[in-house]
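User: Hi! I'm working on a homework problem where we have to compare a predicted structure to a textbook description. Could you give me the structure for the chain below?
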Amino acid sequence: MIYLVRHGRTTYNNEGRFQGGLDSPLTALGLEQASANGRLLKRLIGSPEGWRIQASPLGRTIHTARLLCAELGPGVGFETDARLAEVRLGEWEALTDEEIESASPGARAGTTRYDFFFRAPGGETYEAFAARLGDWLAEAQADAKPRIAISHGVAGRVLRGLYLGLEPAEALRQEAPQDAVFRLADGRVEKIAAG
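Assistant: Happy to help. Predicted structure tokens:
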């Protein structure tokens, strides 16, 4: 079993900036989302003993993981795994939609708001991104220990899509809430709201 969590809301989320491999701090709402998801997981799993907790190594996920683990109990820790990191956006990191269009006129032509990430100059391709996430997923499914993974918006969509065997376009159109967790078990994905 895997519980998948997205990091809490950040200042870049508020500003409409694409973070990719960069970071911005969690907002007050993001702090509350991280703690609420931790309380939800505490209700769902009880004791985290025997669980493996992993987070992307980016600051926003590490901060989320710390708050989440604090809700799970004293001394609960986590490890980082670079395979859970968000898609790298190369030259488009920290830019808004308008700034991307100004920097790379027409580069997103023929894309949607869900798949343009993979056109970023110097960014990561879908194939490379899905391969590293798929590697993590295969390891997690082969492991006898259940896991909690703290990751990102696009990464979470792709992970759930890989788990369900969805085509990339369908996987990328899934929602990516910051106030819920997803349970991946028995070939199904279930969204559980924290509120």
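For your comparison, note the following. The mean pLDDT is 95. The radius of gyration is 16 Å. Good luck with the assignment!
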